[in-house]
DNA sequence: AATGAATGAGCGTTCATTCAT
DNA sequence: CATGAATGAACGCTCATTCAT
């Protein structure tokens, strides 16, 4: 009947689903997968336990859904940032700015995502999920590396291994963002400062 | 009564304790805190469950002990590396070399430590443990920052925020080590390569 | 208002009811009461769950209805067979023939009926249902016994306890029918063979 | 160390196991598999739920154990009865006597066994268990059939299909025993009466 | 001191039943 | 009326912890 639009019922369903995911995200990111019960999620989402199972096959799938959604969001937003118009330098600047915004606006997801997939090591809740998530992450790093490669060819960046350069930029930005977002003082993240530190000083733009 | 030496009984006790910790480390680092039962640890350590409780108040304390021991080891080894003779440049080189060795030789501990305390975010098994471990980590970063500060004064390093410089070096070295230690290829970690990348190319030693 | 005929609405209602009962019979007889959910029945009957509850107070009543209908069918059909014209010998022959046909044409009901009420022991889904069903069964046996009694008086049958004779005939015919209907070979049931075995050989018609 | 005898500990374990099985038998035979919870069994056996799982992998295994034990008991006792000294006539008499005693002394097991494996149809709790149990039953029937076969050769019994003869005897004896054991009056089972009915009147001993 | 059998709270999950639409 | 999304009690099962031996 309707093509683009969802029926009101479908909209409501989607809304409920989102509410459950939000409640679960809040709890999982705060206490971790194993310390959150379905009962608890149900109470916070203001549904009965059974209702959760109407939307998600089991606890693991609910958890996985959150992480995959997060991974998709991060991947699509960061990918787009790297595909914008401009030279490689401005692309990387855009990437950083976008990443800062993304992290700032999605602290809970970020927290959960890094706890599960680990920037480095991690012990996954679900066998294979870790690998799946890391591959998302790796795709972004590779896209970033491709930008560095082109920038190196154009003599915008110093001639270093593009992949390690990308990895380095990513890990530094993660570290700084974690530092700012988690700190007890919790200063608003200063995008300009990051940009300045990475590019003008550390990151090797040819002068 | 006894001053330096432990009685044979005390030695034996220490030995048992260590065996339990080792068994637990292997299991926790492989499967994660929540997927390892005390039963399982007992079997691997070749003791009865009850015996585990003679040495550790509960599962959480056993876990905590492993992490705190790891943190102590890392802290003491890395601190010492930074206190060796030489200028700031060679101190940082020594720090990196030591860290590579430390990680390579203690993969299990490293895996567990980063899964729990997170290079960045993490969701702790035990409330407060995360903070405690991060403070250990932070002490090392601060020591490294102090070295950078002195190096900057001596004009060995460029004039950047010493703390962020330390954080950056640390996060990059973590990222590279994770990459090497976890990679499916699992090349033996190339200390010289790290050194070269960090110092000659990225890390901005004044030339 | 209406005397004999049902309004179209009532007819439709009856039709729906029958469809539900049929769907439930198929599922119950295949998987057993506890392994069939109302959801499942609803899907097979192509109604909503709620609709099932318009027709039957609850799952138990739906189940009970199937069994009671089956019991009624069996009772009425077998009773009628025993009431037909003829001597006692041909009555019993008729009874057997009818029973064979009844079982063959209603395997699902038979399966469910015997699983629930048990030829012998059984553990009922519903307290009291077992007893209720057995009383139906017992009525048939008593009717059969009455025929044997008369036949014994007429010297058609040997002078044995009519009730036990009836019980024996019934249990043997059940056993043979089960054997034939369930057997992996599943020969079409040979009515004549049964008749021959029961009457000419085992069942002791006076010669 | 000990060869034949069990250590006291092992004896105690066996005792506990038996107590659990007994409690479970009582409940299962009364209310059926699906209407008995592990909690309930635990309470009746005066153990904690966890303890049940030390002895049996899960509810199904506990149930299966009861049935298989019963099947084994029935099979071994009835087989032995058929192997005793004597002609075929006395063997069958012995078989009947033994079966009466067996049923009388193990009403609960009998009730459960027939509810599950069904003398005829049944809907099994566990896929395959039904088949497994029926094969035990079938072995006994075949042994009995072999006795009939020999008896027929020796002209002790009338020349009928031995298998159907065995099936008939078994189903009649079941029916009578069920009748006596379940009846509200619950007369003590009259072995002699059964024997008399089967042999002298119905069962075709050549005269 | 060491043991490991016993415990039972608490989990994830199902499904008969209800009731707003 | 028919619907089917929502409910929540109750299940099977696990495992950290205890304590009699």
Summarize the structure.
Chain A is mainly α.
Summary tags:
homotetramer; 2 domains; Arc Repressor Mutant, subunit A; Tetracycline Repressor, domain 2; 72% helix; 0% strand; elongated; DNA-binding
**Helix and strand string of chain A, N-terminal first?**
HHHHHHHHH
Q: Main β-sheet of chain A, in a few words?
A: none
- Classify the fold: give the CATH topology of the largest domain in chain A: Tetracycline Repressor, domain 2
Corresponding CATH architecture of the largest domain in chain A: Orthogonal Bundle
The rough form of chain A would be described as elongated
How many separate domains of chain A? Answer: 2
- The helix fraction of chain A, in percent, is over 70%
Mean pLDDT of chain A: 84
Number of strands of chain A: 0
What is the CATH H-level superfamily of the largest domain in chain A? Tetracycline Repressor, domain 2
Assembly context of the chains: homotetramer
- What share of residues are in beta strands of chain A? under 5%
Give the class of chain A from helix and strand content and strand pairing.
mainly alpha
Radius of gyration of chain A: 20 Å
> Which blocks of ≥5 consecutive residues of chain A have pLDDT under 50?
201-207
Largest interface: A-B, 40 and 39 residues
CATH class of the largest domain in chain A: Mainly Alpha
């Amino acid at each position: 009947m309707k093509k683009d639009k969802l029926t009101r019922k479908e909209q409501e369903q989607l809304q409920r689903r989102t509410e459950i995911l939000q409640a679960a995200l809040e709890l999982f990111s705060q206490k971790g997968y194993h310390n959150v019960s379905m009962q608890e999620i149900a109470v916070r989402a203001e549904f009965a336990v059974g209702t959760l199972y109407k939307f998600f096959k089991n606890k693991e799938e609910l958890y996985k859904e959150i992480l995959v959604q997060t991974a998709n969001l991060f991947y699509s937003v960061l990918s787009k940032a790297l595909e914008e118009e401009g030279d490689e330098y401005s692309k990387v600047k855009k990437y950083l700015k976008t990443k800062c915004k993304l992290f700032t606006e999605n602290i809970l997801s970020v927290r959960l995502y890094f706890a599960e997939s680990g920037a480095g090591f991690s012990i996954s809740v679900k066998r294979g999920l870790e690998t799946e998530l890391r591959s998302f992450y790796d795709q972004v790093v590779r896209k970033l590396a491709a930008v560095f490669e082109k920038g190196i060819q154009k003599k915008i960046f110093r001639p270093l291994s593009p992949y390690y350069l990308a990895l380095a930029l990513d890990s530094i930005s993660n570290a700084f963002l974690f530092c700012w977002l988690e700190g007890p003082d919790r200063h608003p993240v200063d995008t300009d400062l990051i940009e300045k530190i990475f590019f003008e000083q550390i990151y090797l733009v040819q002068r």
